[in-house]
Amino acid sequence: MTTNEGFRERLLFLIHWIGFLTTGWIIYWILQEATEWPNLLGIFTTFIPLVLGWLVRSLNEGYVSPLPWIKKKMRDQQ
Fold first, then answer.
1. Is-above-0.85 flag for pTM?
2. Which of 57, 55, 54, 50 is nearest to 11 (CA)?
3. What is the mean pLDDT of the chain?
4. Structural domains in the chain (count)
5. Which residues have C-beta within 8 Å of that of residue 40, sequence separation ≥ 6?
6. Residue 36: how many CA atoms within 13 Å on its side-chain side?
7. pLDDT at res. 48
8. Which of 29, 39, 63, 68 could disulfide-link 16, Cβ–Cβ 3.0 to 4.6 Å?
């Protein structure tokens, strides 16, 4: 069933992009609204949506790049 796999791949790609864009929005919000720089824990917390989106996609498709616009799977390059 290539249709189901195509749908699943697009859905996982969308989840990855949502995590990436959420991380970008959080960084923008912190830079615009913060009165002081966040501590190290705050910086790591900022990247949680990106890591979760990448992790969901990687667990289902195999290792992919953390940057969502790089579509080639890393396993295909080796």
1. no
2. 57
3. 81
4. 1
5. none
6. 4
7. 92
8. 68
- Burial class of 76 by CB neighbour count within 10 A (0 to 12, 13 to 18, 19+): exposed
Containing structural domain, residue 56: 2-77
Task: Read off the tokens for 77.
Answer: 């390059």
CA dihedral sign of residues 7, 9, 12, 18: negative
What HEC string does the chain produce?
CHHHHHHHHHHHHHHHHHHHHHHHHHHHHHHHHCCCCCCHHHHHHHCHHHHHHHHHHHHHHCCCCCCCCCCCCHHHHC
